[in-house]
Amino acid sequence: MPESVPVRCPVCHRAHRYTAPSYPCACGAPVAPPLDPDAVPVPVGHRAWQEEWVTVRCGRCGHDGEWPRPELGCPCGTALRIPVAGPRAPAPAAPAAPAALPKPPGRPGFRSVPIRTARDAVTAAVLYLRLLGHEDVRRAHRCPPAGVGLAGRGVLARVDPSSRPATLRDVECLWLTAMTESARCLYFSLAGYAEDARARADALGVPLFLLDPTGVPQPVNGPADALDAGGA
Description:
Blueprint: E1 4-8, E2 15-19, E3 23-24, E4 30-31, E5 42-43, E6 53-57, E7 64-68, E8 71-73, E9 79-81, E10 99-100, E11 111-112, H1 118-131, E12 138-139, E13 148-152, E14 155-160, H2 168-180, E15 184-189, H3 195-204, E16 208-211, E17 217-219, H4 222-230
Parallel strand pairs: 14-15, 15-16
Antiparallel strand pairs: 1-2, 3-4, 5-9, 6-7, 8-9, 10-11, 12-13, 13-14, 16-17
Helix pairs in contact: 2-3
């Protein structure tokens, strides 16, 4: 079972209960970062790519994977970094060079990375967004309820590397955030989408993509098909 710890925001002093998300290891086992219940959460200020990841070892196969460092968004607007127990290995300074892969539907010459960790999933999404013309994609300052938020000029994306299908609430939260920032939005998921989430995304015009093990984003609804075929 994923770990759950009490969290108090040091800015507004609200009390929360945070549950660590689980991610699928390459062997198929769910992996969750071990949380430190005695440490104090730290507000996220300046973001650095190397600090966004934590190395977690799979209890089944022993593989070390890089997963998003746990964060909680408080209603007061503060993004809180949840402390992880035990030492962690340093994350590489930059993603590995992508390998050429067969083109996905409608997107010639796409290059991506095989997905073994959450960092690979984010890299695949960034490369796809750049293919659409968004060269300035970066980690979003406002963290989503789960997963990793990406932002560029006029675009927001959410990358969900967890082992559960994205929910209706996940899609609506992304759409509402994009509306407040007058941006288009895209959703990338490793585990797919619940039926009501897909129906809501169709109604709102949110493109949904499934990240397959090769790292190629596959469109799974009408808005995604249109975007994939027509570009940015």
